[in-house]
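Running log. JK asked me to keep both predictions on one page so they can be read side by side. First protein, sequence followed by its tokens:
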Amino acid sequence: MFKPADLFDLSQTEHAAIFDGCTYAWEALKKIKAYVEANAKSSLNNKCEGVAFIGKNVFIGEGTVVEDGVMIKGPAIIGRNCQIRHNAYIREHVVVGDNCMVGNSCELKNVLIFNGCQVPHFNYLGDSILGYKAHLGAGVIASNLKSLPGNVTVEMDGVPFDTGLRKFGALIGDHAEVGCNAVLNPGSIIGRGAVIYPGVNWRSILPANMIAKNKAEIEVVVRRLRET
């Protein structure tokens, strides 16, 4: 499940060329920067609601709404009919597809987002790819940098495989769902249609159509009211 086509419907992005020549899907992360710098031409076709900062070499498609307090540093390519909501922070080398939502207080950096994705509230995505109609709950973090030295590895045939990337957040397949306040550790790969429950601290690979549950026990006790 490491090939681009294993995770993503490449017809659901106008930027499939980023994957050209990639054996493994994470290799596209190294190519986002050059692709955006070559293709992000300043053209703002959006509607602004309030005041936003939009830097140089930013393309925004028709029908997209950019709300008050948004900062788009650029270079960036943002598609048609998107919602870029209040205080979103879109940093360098970001590609957002059509009909996407980037919500309140989200931060994106070196990211490719396929069409129909929702990144709705308080999310951080660094060095990551979201497939078609992937959805993140509030507070989901895709951590992109190991606390220890060295490149990010993924387990391949039971053996750690060096991706060659110092920074690698997550690959989230088409239609995958990640619940509120989940943390995706560096090098996480989430298969098509997979689900991660809220609050899960996830690392490694979740195959397609599987569910990762948090089995932490919850204790329920009788509430004893104090006398006033």
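And the second, directly underneath as requested:
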Amino acid sequence: MSRFPDNFLWGGATSAAQIEGGRCSDGKGLCHLDYVYYRGPKIPCNFMLKRDYERAKAEEATLNFPNRRGIDFYHHYKEDIALLAEMGFKVFRMSISWTRLFPTGLEETPDPKGVEFYHNVFRELHKYGIEPLVTMIHYELPIVFVEKYDGWASPEVIPHCVRYLKFLIDEYKDEVTYWLTFNEINMVTAVPWLGGGILLDRYDDFEIPKGFRPFGVLPEDMAKRWDNASHQALHHQFIASAMVVKYAHETAPQCKMGNMFNLHHLYPETPSPEDAYRAHEESEYNMFFCDVMAKGYYPKWMLSYYRKHHIDIQWYEGYEEILKEGTIDFISLSYYLSSVVTADPARQERIGNFMRMLHNPYIETSDFGWQVDPTALRISLNDLRDRFNLPIFIAENGLGAFESLGEDKTVHDDYRIAYLRRHIEALADAIEDGVDVFGYTMWGCIDLVSCSLVSMSKRYGFVYVDADDEGNGTYNRYKKDSFTWYKKVIATNGEDLD
């Protein structure tokens, strides 16, 4: 008897910004991720300052913008979906590009060619019996909201976004059952540009020091700007999400609405009470994002946190009722790694309010510095069960690696198989613990443009795409060893992991 439910949804995950390509095809507009340019191997790109954006605009004709190419899913979607079907996918997590439907984000009506493209994708998925799981906003914000406003820190974005989200429900409710409103909504507090289209230094009275990098202890004035802008943006995203969840419940009750957050399990560095409390505090912070979306209110401790840290939120009118009426139906999460926390601020690196990372000597580390810890996934799933008592979907989990196509036209990625095997085993253990997990989508099931490095070098997929960081290559698709392995995993409902 399988440890997984008979109707368990096995599949893979992608995002429109990282796979679609087709920049400006059939009227598509540009989003803020289209201005993130490649800066070299292992150089994070998605933290953008005013000088970076100004360079992107000034040198648009010569800089390398990989998100504008993706893997050309726009023209390869039938071929790609056929590969997913060959693996036996039950579900495919994808996102819809706001600017393919509403090129500037300000239009009252959508572009019909963009609307039809997604109908075609859904028809192709259903032809093979694959359920689409759709992320409404996967880090994409029309560029006008960066230039005209202040990204998601501005409440002016909300009505335009809600119009777009309501359109998605109205147009595709008969083709899509499972929806996620925002991808990794907590990442706006970690990387304000990526999650919210916010340029922290866009104002003349705020200057980023030379040599700044978004890690370590932040200068006081920058930390204050970061905290206020990112949490204001988060509040606006909570509001937009709750509004569309309520709308879907009223107009399309067959649709199931979920959140999506980055789960980051934290251990105290030592058994000292100070380290233990610090780990508890950080864990509570990570869960806060689900608290608001699943319970419908800000927890009291978070309001206290705002007062303590002088974070001044401009509350959206009627926000308490809006959040209460727009609670989600299931929890969705990404999980990649765990971290170690210390109470000593001088030794603790940070990215905004997120990801305190110290080395854990008890677990291995990937080529990209991420510590591989499937046990933490099991622990966290049990915590989520006890805290929310809602169904759970694992929307992202995977291993990025440098890979090249061999002479035999494949990639022998035993390391990826080993990583996924251990996490699927941990997932099975959590289900036996009584956690209601109903689906798993491995991240980047087809090689795509990585989010952090904005490159093709960091590969996740079961399928290799012949394209390099400069956009050179045939863009042909080739099956890796993990393709056959995952096909067997799905066929046996998670029982055969050898």
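Observation for JK regarding the second prediction: The CA atoms of residues 105 and 256 lie 25 Å apart.
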